[in-house]
Each structure stands twice: as C-alpha cells, then as structure tokens.
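Async update (no meeting this week)

Hi team, since we skipped the sync, here's where things stand on the single-chain job. The sequence we agreed to prioritize is pasted below, unchanged from the tracker. I ran it this morning and attached the output directly underneath so nobody has to dig for it. Comments welcome in thread, and please keep replies under the output.
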Amino acid sequence: MSDCIFCKIINGEIPSKKVYENDFVYAFDDINPKAKVHTLVVPKKHFDSLNELDDEKIMSEILKGIKEVAKIKGIDSYRLQVNTGKAEGQEVMHLHFHILSNTVERK
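Output:
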C-alpha cells in the first residue's frame, strides 16, 4: 500500500532502527517506546490487521521473528501486544506485533 507508513519503512523509504529481517518479516524498534525494549514485528506483505492474515507460512515466520528479536535483544521475559481494529487501539492499519519488556536479561 503506497500510503502505509510500515510499508514505507519495510521498503526503506522511511528510516528505522532495524532489529531483524528475513524474506517474510521486518522488525524495528518503536520510535515511541513504552518499555525498555519495544520492538515491532511486521509482515512484509500488507495485511490491515490480524483478521486478514490467512497465510500460515507468514504467521509461522512472524512467530520465528518474535523469537529472534527476543534473542537479539537478550530477553527471556516479554509480552506481546497485537491491537486489531481502531476501536481497540490499532493506530497503523498494517498488522504488527509489539514486543515489550522492562526486564532486559543479558544471556
């Protein structure tokens, strides 16, 4: 989608602090962190929300990406947040998973 901020980040049109990337997902640090670690994991293919995701391969890659980000960030404890729909706080209409942790545990 040409007007989607996350699509623009994925395509390199808007700078970001990349944490992880593979063929299916892109992960970057949130510019307005709500925790010591606050990283977003987004599928490279545009889905407005979790309700539209119907690709099991992409879902699997999102979960792998989340685990890789946790490893890269050195955290064992974290929470995931996925807002689905504007009524529940989704601000960017591109599926994204927030990884949040206030307990940074170096391995």
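Quick observations from my side:
Residues 1 and 7 are 7 Å apart (CA to CA).
The chain has one domain: 5-101.
Reply here if anything looks off.
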